[in-house]
Design brief:
By secondary structure, this protein is of the alpha/beta class. The chain folds into three domains: about 240 residues, Rossmann fold (3-Layer(aba) Sandwich); about 160 residues, Rossmann fold; about 100 residues, 2-Layer Sandwich (GMP Synthetase, Chain A, domain 3). It is about 30% helix and about 25% strand. An eight-stranded mixed beta sheet has the order 7-6-5-3-4-8-9-18, sandwiched between helices. Strands 16, 17, 19, 20 and 21 form a five-stranded antiparallel beta sheet that branches. A four-stranded mixed beta sheet has the order 2-1-11-10, sandwiched between helices. A hairpin with a 6-residue loop joins strand 13 and strand 14. Helix 1 packs antiparallel against helix 2, helix 4 packs across helix 5 and helix 10 packs across helix 11. The longest helix has 17 residues. The chain is globular. The chain starts with about 25 loop residues before the first helix and ends with a helix. The model has no long low-confidence stretch (mean pLDDT about 90).
C-alpha cells in the first residue's frame, strides 16, 4: 500500500496537517472565557457555571495550591466522579504548573496505594465517600493533604484535610503562573494497565493533549458550531477518552458540558429530555442501554447529532438500530491512553465503513508492520501490528525507561494491537497482541485479576480471559484449578475478588477445572481457552 493513501478521502475543507499552538490547556480555557464569558461551561443537575466563573475558580484553585507549597512538576491526584469540582481541580492543577494524576474512583486500596506511590502525589482531591479509603493508605504514601468534594452529607475530616469549598477560598484567582514548556512539561499522568501487571503512567504533555483536542476539532469541524454545542458528559473524566473528547473538547469549542456522575439509564434519558444535548461521546454499552429502552424516542434523543464511540467495538446491528431510532450518526473510533487518546475515527465527511475504526485524524501517521520484527510494513489487507506517530503521542511512561523504549521506537508508538488496513487507509482492529479485556469501556488486564485470585489460599492455578458479551462488549471469565483437597465455591471466589479488585474487574464467570492447557514449557495457553469459550458461545 502506498504511504498516506488514506489522505485522499479528506476534502479540501479539512486540514490533513495542523499546527499546534504553543499554549497550555489553561490558556485555552482563559481564551474561551474571554470570548464566551457567559456561555454555560458546566451543567450539573440544577446548577450551572459559565466560562467566566469556571476560569476564575480554576485560577483560585491554582493559587490555593501554591499557598500549600505546591510548585511546578508536583503531582496532585484527582479521585472524583464527573462533577464541576473535577473540572475546576483539573484546570487549577495545570494552572499552578503541577501535574494531574488521574485515579479511577473505583480503585480499591491496593490499586490506589500503588498509583499514589508510583506518581509521588502530595495531595489528592477526593469524593468524601472515598475519603476513608485515602486515609487507610495515606501513611504509606506521600499524601499530605486531602481536599474533599461532597455530593451529599460531608465526611468528618482529619485536622490536616479540608473541604473543596474552603480550599477554594484560599485563592483569589491570581496565581503565580509558571513558565511551561508545552512540548516537554507533563500535564497529566494517565495510568493504564500492562501485561506485567503493573499500571503505567503515560506522560501526556500539554502539547499532546491540546494537539488531540485540535485534531478532533479539525476532524469534526463541519459538524461543530462554536459556542452552541451541548455535550452529554457521562463518560468518566478520569478516563482519557472522557478527559479529551468530552471535557477538553467542550472547553475548546465553548460548549456546555452536561455532566452526570454515572451512567444510570433513566437519569440519562431524563437529562437528555431536559437539556437536549447535541454531542454524546460514549462507549457501546451506553448506546446499547438507550437503544434497548422501549420508550427511548419519547425523551427527545433525536437532539443528539453526533455520537463518537470508543473504547470497545461497536456491533453493526446496534449501530444501525441506534441511528434509525435517534437520527444521529455513530462515529466509531480508536485510541489509547498513550495517544491522548484519539488516533482514528470514522469521518462524517467521507464514507463510513461499519466494522472499521476509520482513518487517521489530522497529523497522524500510521501503518501496519510485521508481527515478528515490527519493522516491515505489510500490504493492504494483511494482518500486523498497528503503529502510530503524531503530536498526540505520549512522552513516555513515568519512571519506566524500559517500557518506554519498548513502546516508542523512532517516534512510533507500538500499540500492541493486531490490525489490518484496506486500500483507502481505513483501519480494522482484529485482535489484541496484549491480552487486554475491554468490558463496558474499562480496560482490564488479566494479570491484575489473576494476581488477586492467586492470593486465595485454595487456588493452585488461574487464568483470566475475556469472552464476548452483547452488552458489555466483553466479560471477565476466570478459569481456576484448586489445590489438592481444597474446595471453594464460585461465590467465595467472587467475594474474595470484590474485596481486592475494583468492581469492573471482578469475573462475571468462574469455572473450575482439574488442569489447564499448557505449552511444552508449561505456559498456560490463554488463547486456546479464549477460542474455546468463544466457540461454546457461538453454538
Amino acid at each position: 500500500m502506498k504511504e498516506k493513501v488514506w489522505l485522499s478521502v479528506y476534502p479540501e475543507s479539512i486540514s490533513k496537517e495542523i499546527e499546534i499552538p504553543d499554549k497550555t490547556l489553561p490558556q485555552i480555557l482563559q481564551e474561551t472565557a474571554q470570548q464566551f464569558p457567559h456561555n454555560n461551561a458546566i451543567t450539573f443537575y440544577s446548577s450551572k457555571m459559565n466560562y467566566q466563573e469556571l476560569n476564575h475558580a480554576a485560577l483560585s484553585f491554582a493559587e490555593a495550591l501554591q499557598t500549600q507549597g505546591i510548585k511546578k512538576g508536583d503531582r496532585i491526584a484527582i479521585m472524583l466522579p464527573n462533577c464541576p469540582q473535577y473540572v475546576i481541580a483539573y484546570y487549577g492543577i495545570l494552572s499552578s504548573g503541577a501535574i494531574v494524576t488521574q485515579v479511577n474512583p473505583m480503585s480499591v486500596s491496593r490499586e490506589l496505594e500503588y498509583i499514589l506511590n508510583d506518581s509521588g502525589a502530595e495531595m489528592i482531591v477526593v469524593l468524601d465517600d472515598l475519603y476513608q479509603r485515602v486515609k487507610e493508605v495515606q501513611p504509606r504514601t506521600a499524601i499530605k493533604k486531602a481536599v474533599t468534594v461532597s455530593l451529599g452529607a460531608p465526611a468528618k475530616l482529619a485536622e490536616e484535610d479540608i473541604t473543596f469549598e474552603a480550599f477554594l477560598k484560599k485563592g483569589s484567582g491570581q496565581p503565580d503562573v509558571p513558565e511551561i514548556d508545552t512540548e516537554h512539561d507533563i500535564a497529566v499522568l494517565q495510568y493504564t494497565g500492562g501485561t506485567t501487571g503493573l499500571s503505567k503512567g503515560a506522560m501526556l504533555t500539554h502539547r499532546n493533549i491540546l494537539a488531540n483536542v485540535i485534531q478532533s476539532y479539525e476532524f469534526f469541524k463541519q459538524e461543530i458550531e462554536l459556542g452552541k454545542e451541548r455535550f452529554l458528559t457521562v463518560i468518566p473524566l478520569f478516563h482519557v477518552f472522557g478527559m479529551s473528547s468530552a471535557m477538553n473538547f467542550a472547553v475548546y469549542t465553548a460548549g456546555d458540558s452536561i455532566m452526570l456522575p454515572r451512567f444510570q439509564l433513566e437519569e440519562v434519558l431524563h437529562t437528555i429530555k431536559q437539556e437536549q444535548p447535541t454531542i454524546f461521546p460514549g462507549v457501546p454499552t451506553m448506546y446499547v442501554a438507550i437503544n434497548s429502552h422501549p420508550n427511548a424516542e419519547e425523551f427527545g434523543i433525536n437532539s443528539i447529532r453526533v455520537c463518537n464511540s470508543g473504547s470497545a467495538p461497536m456491533p453493526l446491528e446496534l449501530l444501525r438500530e441506534y441511528e434509525k431510532k435517534t437520527g444521529s450518526k455513530i462515529l466509531e473510533g480508536y485510541g489509547l491512553s498513550e495517544a491522548s487518546p484519539v488516533t482514528h475515527c470514522n469521518p462524517m465527511f467521507a464514507r463510513r465503513k461499519p466494522g472499521s475504526v476509520g482513518i487517521g485524524v489530522p497529523s497522524t501517521q500510521y501503518k501496519i508492520v510485521d508481527l515478528a520484527a515490527g519493522t516491515d510494513e505489510v500490504e493492504a489487507g494483511e494482518l500486523g501490528e498497528l503503529i502510530v506517530k503524531g503530536p498526540q503521542i505520549m512522552k513516555g511512561y513515568w519512571n519506566m525507561p524500559q517500557e518506554t523504549a519498548a513502546a516508542l521506537k523512532d517516534g512510533w508508538l507500538y500499540t500492541g494491537d493486531i490490525a489490518k488496513m484496506d486500500e483507502e487507509g481505513y483501519l480494522y482492529i482484529v485482535d489484541r497482541k496484549k491480552d487486554l479485556i475491554i468490558a463496558s469501556g474499562y480496560n482490564i488486564y488479566p494479570r491484575d485479576v489473576e494476581e488477586v485470585i492467586y492470593e486465595h489460599p485454595s487456588v493452585k492455578e488461574a487464568v483470566v480471559i475475556g469472552i464476548p458479551d452483547k452488552y458489555r462488549g466483553e466479560s471477565v471469565k476466570a478459569i481456576i484449578v484448586l489445590k489438592d483437597g481444597k474446595t471453594v465455591s464460585e461465590d467465595e471466589i467472587s467475594h474474595f475478588c470484590r474485596e481486592n479488585l475494583a468492581a469492573y474487574k471482578v469475573p462475571h464467570f468462574i469455572e473450575f477445572r482439574k488442569e489447564l492447557p499448557k505449552t511444552n514449557v508449561g505456559k498456560i495457553l490463554r488463547r486456546a481457552l479464549r477460542e474455546e469459550a468463544q466457540s461454546q458461545i457461538s453454538r
